[in-house]
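Our collaborator T.R. sent over the components below with a one-line note: 'Predict the complex.' Nothing else. No constraints on interfaces, no templates requested, no preferences about which chain binds where. So this is a plain run: every listed entity goes in together, and whatever single assembly comes back becomes the starting point for the next discussion.
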Amino acid sequence: MSQVPFQYSLHITDSEGTILEHREFLARPEDFSNPSAVDPRLQLIQQLREDIGDQGSIIAYHASFEKTRLVDLAKSFPNEREFIESLLPRFVDLLIPFKSGWYYKPEMGASASIKSVLPAIAPEFSYSDLEIGNGGLASNTFLAMIQNIFEGDRPLTNKNLLAYCERDTEGMVVIYRHLLALVNQL
Amino acid sequence: MIENIYIEIKQFISELANNENQKRNLIRNKLWCFKARHFAKLQTVTVSR
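Returned assembly:
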């Protein structure tokens, strides 16, 4: 079994956490089974190169997962290895303050998961308006599309997948701003 | 102690800045001044090899 990246969301902010840009990528499911298509993973890498630039922190929640996926990609595409490896030192893990217990609210329920932390610090932030509101559903939906057993509306589902991933990184921005506000209170 | 929590958050933030090698900016603006941040997430699908 392996974890294959097919999508990313990228919110680019300034030093105050103000969102400057949002970039995203979503593979075409059919490209996974079309031998004449450019490998969707390579498409992802190539767009990521354009979107993420060569400087600035890359903030992820549970960064080790993201980094491991990138290392996997570097193994699959040796020509992209230099670019991918240049990303790794830029990672900062937003999980750390919560996993380490540096900041805790009872509403987090002894969990540092982003799905526990986010509603605890921003109750108004929700996934409830989204058709696809969790990673498992996103993954299973896309897998069904790859396997050509998906019977729903594909263009609409693409929008739903993009909306979910965008909400996830937007949530990280919300957490970051919350930490910033705490520090500014000092 | 709530103060300790804040101090540790400050350290975390400082580590962010150090990671960006933007210490001069950090000093100038006290805490927050490094280049644009990228909040990133990869969505994956689990497949059989």
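Summary for T.R.: The beta strands of chain B are 37-47.
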